[in-house]
Write a structure and sequence with these properties.
- With about 375 residues, the chain is of the alpha/beta class.
- The protein is built from twelve helices and 14 strands.
- An eight-stranded mixed sheet has the order 1-3-2-4-5-6-13-12, with helices on both faces.
C-alpha cells in the first residue's frame, strides 16, 4: 500500500511539472495583450540571417503618442509584409510605451521562430537589447521609423527626420511675421521624447531654421521642453506653463507632432488664443488636418506611411529571398557611435490650408468626413 501511494504521488508530481511547463511555454509565446498573428503558421528557417525566412515579427512602440501607429502603420505593415512573405506569418505587438514590454515581445517572437524583426523602438537606446538578442540567433533587425542605437542593425527605414524638423522651422521662418508685432514675438518650443532619436532630429532641423531668427532678435525663445513619451497631457501642461510664465504673451507655438499640437491648442483655447498663434505639428492626423481647417493649427508634416511600410516589406522580401537590396536603399544614417546604417529615407511634405486638397485628401490619407466635421461647406476648397 505504501508503494502504491508513493507511485501515485510520483505520477501526480510528474504530471504537475509537465502541466506547468506547457503553461509556461504558452505564456512565453503569447506576446502582449495587443499582439496579433496574421498568415499561416510556418516552420521558420531559424536565423540564417533572414534567408528563407517566412515568419516576421513587427513591434510598434505605443498607441498614445500618435494615432498613426495603430491607424496607419499597423495595418500597412501587416498587409505589405504579409504579401511579401506569402505562405508565412506576421506576428504583431504594441509595447504601449513600455521598454521592458517591447523587449519581452521581441523575445517571444524569437522563441516562436520569427527570423526577421521589424522594430519601431519605444526607446532608441533600450531597444539595442533587442538587436543583441536577435543577432545571437542570426536574426536581422530592421529599425522602422525610429533609429535604434546599435551597430548591429541590418537596415533602417524612415523619413528624412532632420528634414521634417527643417520643414517645420522653415514654415515658422516664412510665416512668423503674420503673427508677431513689435515687442510681442515670443516662441515656445515643445519637442518630443528625448529617448526617441527622431525627436532629437526634428529638434535639430527646426533649430537650424529658427535659431537665426532668435539670434537676430526677430523671435524671442521664452520656453523649451522635451516631452517624455510624446505624452499629450504632459504637452498641454507644458503649454499651460509657458502661457502662465509669459502672461499669455506667446505668438509662435512649436509642437513636434499633431497630438501635442492638439494639446497645446486646448491650452490656448482656455485663454481664448486659439487661431491667434502659429501652431506647428506633424503626422497629418485627421485631428491635425481638422484643426488646420478650423484655423487653430497652422501646419503639419505629411509622411506617406504606406511608402515607408512598403519599403520595409521590400527589404523583408529581399532578405528572405537572398537578393540584392541596392535598388531599395537610398542613404545611410549614423548611430550614436558613428556606425553607418544602410537606410531607406522617404520624403516628408509640409501641409497647410493651401495644399490639403492636393496632398492628404488626394492620396486618401485622411477621412474627408472626419476632417470637415462641424466645418462650413466650402472651407478652404476641401469641405
Amino acid at each position: 500500500m505504501k508503494l502504491f501511494l508513493s507511485k501515485s504521488r510520483s505520477l501526480t508530481t510528474t504530471f504537475s511539472v509537465i502541466l506547468l511547463a506547457v503553461l509556461f511555454t504558452a505564456c512565453a509565446g503569447s506576446g502582449s495583450a495587443t499582439g496579433t498573428t496574421t498568415g499561416t503558421s510556418t516552420t521558420s528557417s531559424g536565423g540564417n540571417n533572414g534567408k528563407g525566412c517566412k515568419n516576421v515579427g513587427v513591434l510598434l512602440p505605443d498607441s498614445s503618442s500618435s494615432d498613426r501607429w495603430e491607424s496607419k502603420d499597423h495595418p500597412a505593415l501587416t498587409k505589405s509584409i504579409g504579401a511579401a512573405v506569402t505562405g508565412g506569418r506576421v506576428d504583431y505587438a504594441n509595447a504601449q510605451a513600455n521598454n521592458d514590454t517591447q523587449i519581452s515581445q521581441a523575445e517571444a517572437d524569437l522563441t516562436r521562430g520569427d527570423c526577421i524583426l521589424v522594430v519601431a523602438a519605444n526607446d532608441s537606446d533600450a531597444a539595442a537589447a533587442i538587436v543583441t538578442k536577435a543577432k545571437a540567433q542570426n536574426v536581422p533587425v530592421i529599425a522602422y521609423d525610429r533609429l535604434i542605437q546599435s551597430k548591429d542593425l541590418a537596415y533602417y527605414v524612415s523619413f528624412d527626420n532632420t528634414k521634417v524638423g527643417a520643414l517645420q522651422g522653415q514654415y515658422i521662418a516664412t510665416h512668423y511675421k503674420e503673427f508677431v508685432k513689435p515687442g510681442h514675438a515670443n516662441i515656445s518650443i515643445i519637442s518630443g521624447s528625448q529617448t526617441d532619436n527622431n525627436a532629437l532630429l526634428f529638434s535639430q532641423g527646426m533649430h537650424g531654421a529658427v535659431d537665426p531668427l532668435i539670434s537676430s532678435g526677430a523671435l524671442k525663445k521664452v520656453y523649451e521642453q522635451f516631452t517624455p513619451n510624446w505624452n499629450p497631457p504632459t504637452a498641454q501642461t507644458e503649454m499651460e506653463a509657458a502661457l502662465t510664465a509669459n502672461h499669455n504673451d506667446i505668438q509662435i507655438a512649436y509642437a513636434a507632432n499633431d497630438d501635442m499640437a492638439n494639446a497645446s491648442i486646448a491650452a490656448l483655447k482656455a485663454q481664448h488664443l486659439n487661431g491667434k498663434v502659429l501652431v506647428t505639428g506633424q503626422d497629418a492626423t485627421g485631428t491635425g488636418i481638422h484643426n488646420i481647417l478650423a484655423g487653430d493649427q497652422t501646419m503639419t508634416i505629411y509622411k506617406a506611411i504606406a511608402n515607408e511600410a512598403q519599403a520595409t516589406a521590400d527589404l523583408v522580401k529581399a532578405i528572405s529571398e537572398g537578393t540584392s537590396v541596392s535598388s531599395i536603399l537610398n542613404g545611410s544614417v549614423k548611430t550614436s557611435d558613428g556606425t553607418a546604417i544602410q537606410s531607406v529615407l522617404e520624403t516628408p511634405v509640409a501641409v497647410d490650408k493651401a495644399n490639403i486638397a492636393t496632398t492628404v485628401v488626394a492620396d486618401g490619407y485622411v477621412d474627408k468626413a472626419l476632417i470637415c466635421k462641424g466645418l462650413p461647406a466650402g472651407t478652404d476648397g476641401v469641405c
